[in-house]
Amino acid sequence: MLRLVASELDLEHTDRSWLRSLVEDLVDTMRDQNGVGIAAPQVGVSLRIFAIEVRPDNPRYENAGDVPLRIAINPHLELLGDRDKPSFEGCLSVPDMRGVTLRHESVILRYLDEGLIDQQVQLNGFEAIIAQHETDHLNGKLYVDRLRSSRDFGFLPEVTDFNSVHV
Ligand code: NI
After folding, report:
1. Is residue 89 part of a domain?
2. 90 within some domain
3. Ligand 1 mean position, distance from CA 128 (Å)
4. Measured CA distances, 57 to 54, 63, 120 (Å)
5. Over its length of 167 residues, how does the chain's per-residue pLDDT go in tens digits?
6. What is the 136 CA–ligand 1 centroid distance (Å)?
């Protein structure tokens, strides 16, 4: 499932209460596991939907700021600038590991929100990185496919010397 390219949500043929419960499941799972983002394939549904939320009290990401919950259905990312920003990442689907990838500093995200309303927003910094990480999930990619170097990857307790690039 995690290596598949997920399908667009077919709005005409999707039961709205089923969609609501899928979104609830995504948000609950993300919060339970102290994630800052989650994509539908991570809960066993191969559809192009993700959620992003950073709570200031998240113990897995200290000082990461405060990003309100955003549900993105059929998202499209436009990548701005170069892919040159080091990003210290983990993933709920790759437990206990961390690695350094390179990401774009800013993106434009177009998507339908949970009310199926068209949205477009420019994201910068941490939220832009999460949107890139979650979009990768929809395309069957994990952050380990984008490591800056294979040396920049390890079990969380052992990974200390590249903590300085923590986003
Ligand atoms: Ni992930």
Report:
1. no
2. no
3. 14
4. 9, 8, 27
5. 899 999 999 999 999 999 999 999 999 999 999 999 999 999 999 999 999 999 988 888 777 788 999 999 999 999 999 999 999 899 999 988 999 999 999 999 999 999 999 999 999 999 999 999 999 999 999 999 999 988 888 888 766 555 444 43
6. 8
Cβ neighbours around 92 below 10 Å, total? 19
Q: How far is the CA of 16 from the centre of ligand 1 (A)?
A: 26
User: Rounded CA gap, 100 and 61, in Å?
Assistant: 15
Q: State the distance from the centre of ligand 1 to the C-alpha of 139, rounded, in angstroms.
A: 12
Q: Is residue 79 part of a domain?
A: yes
Catalytic residue among 53, 89, 127, 134: 134
Q: Which domain holds residue 68?
A: 11-84+103-144
| Known catalytic membership, residue 134 | yes
For residue 43, give the CATH number of its domain: 3.90.45.10
**What residues form DSSP beta bridges with 123?**
107
The reply to whether 152 falls in a domain is no
